[in-house]
Amino acid sequence: MAEERKQRKPIPRVDEESKPFWEACARHELYVQKCRHCGKVFYYPRSFCPEDLTQDLEWVKCSGRGKVYTFTVTYQNQSPGFRENLPYVMAYVELEEGVRMLTNIVGCKPEEVRIDMPVEVAFEDVTPDLSIPVFKPVGK
Amino acid sequence: MGITGKAAVVGVYEHPLRWAPHKTQYQLMAESARGALEDAGLSIKDVDGLFTSGVGPMGIVALAEHLNLNPDYLDSTSIGGSSFVAHTAHAAAAIAAGYCTVALIVYGSTWSSDRFAIGTGGGAGSDPPDQFEACFGPTTVGDYALVAQRHMHEFGTTSEQLAEIAVTMRRHASLNPFAKFRDPITVEDVLASRIVSSPLHLLDCCMISDGGGAVVVTSAERARDLKKKPVYILGAAEACYHTSAGCRDLTDAAAKQSGPKALARAGVTHKDIDMAMIYDSFTITVLVTLESLGFCQKGEGGAFVQHGRIGLGGELPINTDGGGLSSNHPGMRGIFLVIEATKQLRGECGERQVKDCRLALCHGTGGTLGLRHSGATLVLGV
Which of A13, A17, A95, A102 to mutate to test the interface with B (most CBs of B within 10 A)? Predict the structure, then answer.
């Protein structure tokens, strides 16, 4: 049942630029990218550096830890996959690597979420080949 | 170079309907076009520049066909609700360059009667960022709520301060016979309304209505011979802010980039502005926009909107028609910013007229503040 619900949420459309990122997520590993030319660390993944457009990039494995930059508890969303799971927490998490990513906070009550709360990555398996990175309070 | 004073808004029309299940989108556009052209004393045959948004990828061509127009200049820039503010500036530039002489900017929408869940629906798009967002359940309200939560955390902004914006817009709407919601509300009413996406309450959110509107722009020279007092286009600028590869400061809006440029191009400062039309998709949109435009310091927006400052009779009256929070919001509201500012500058606003209104600023926000959005600033004057 839970599986069925998850699958009704939009499944990320993996493309050539993002494939390594999503393949790592499927292994429950989180990566961001770094430009070897200018040193810029960035998210979301792409095939070039968003600072200088060079393609000399490396994948950086994240510690998986970060803190909540901001969040919202959503009580109303008519879309399939979400309307059955209200309320839920959407957040930007600032990773230790310095970039912010949109995600969900899980593993605690929505009313317990606070800005600056330490969190760590967890993975929600949405299909056999695809997992999405969500975050839970550290130690939960 | 520049567009300052070269073109003027000479005709405006706001469709009075907020619920139009018996009309089509293109019918609302045609009725609005007719209204604005009559206001200007021009005919549809005078139009040689056409501007619209909120239609399909080639919808502007279908609109030209529907109106039986063969314009020399077409612009269907689609940057969200701010599009029509941008169109007004684009029209002035096209006229200054000699590409067209009479520009019709037109909008129509039946999203309310179509039951389009703009604020709390949403699906997955196919642009690159969408795969990193849609699976986490972003809604329009939620995306703005992310900004509100961060603003409260960094600056101590309160729900009461945000509510003050909704209360002020409702007070203005009570003076606008066409506004959808006209019964006064209090800060307590806003706080007692249900949370849609924390910290935003239902009454922090704009409505969804049907509606339409049109604006006619022509050269300053031609404007002088028309029916109504010309409202000159003095300065404009656009910008867009996004997630900046993971480094965006969420409490800044694109207005920070476009606002100062538009004012400088018009050769005026904040103190010169008599009234402003600030896109109010949500209360937080207004607060962050006022800060980003520079009407107050960053973080001081909460205090700025209190004690009547943004109400009629205050230092900077905003959204005198009641805004998207209380008058109308058919999915995209930019055109109504230009229409109300024009009416104020002409002195046609009756009970809600701003005294001695000479200079107005419009700022449209399109998209969502929390993910990516456009900003379009326009300075108008008489």
Answer: A102
Pairing of strands B49-52, A130-137: unpaired
Examine the pLDDT at A1 and tell me if it is beyond 50: no
Interface subset of A 39-58, CB within 8 angstroms of B:
40-44, 46, 50-51
What percent of chain A has pLDDT above 70? 95
Instruction: For chain A, give every domain's residue range.
Output: 2-137
Nearest Cβ partner of A71 from B130, B149, B246? B149
pLDDT at A5 over 60: no
ipTM of the complex: 0.95
Q: Which residue of B has its CA nearest to A87?
A: B197
Angle between helices B83-96 and B334-346 (to 10 degrees): 60
Please name each of the domains of chain B with its CATH number.
Answer: 7-115+206-381 (3.40.47.10)
Average pLDDT over residues B200-226: 97
The C-alpha atoms of residue A58 and residue B168 are separated, in whole angstroms, by 52
Which member of B117, B126, B138 has the closest CB to residue A90?
B138
A6, pLDDT greater than 80: no
Residues 100-119 of A with CB under 8 A from B: 100-104, 115
Strand order, beta sheet including B211-219: B73-75, B49-52, B102-109, B211-219, B7-14, B231-241, B373-381, B359-367, B275-278
| Cα–Cα dist A134/B198, whole Å | 19
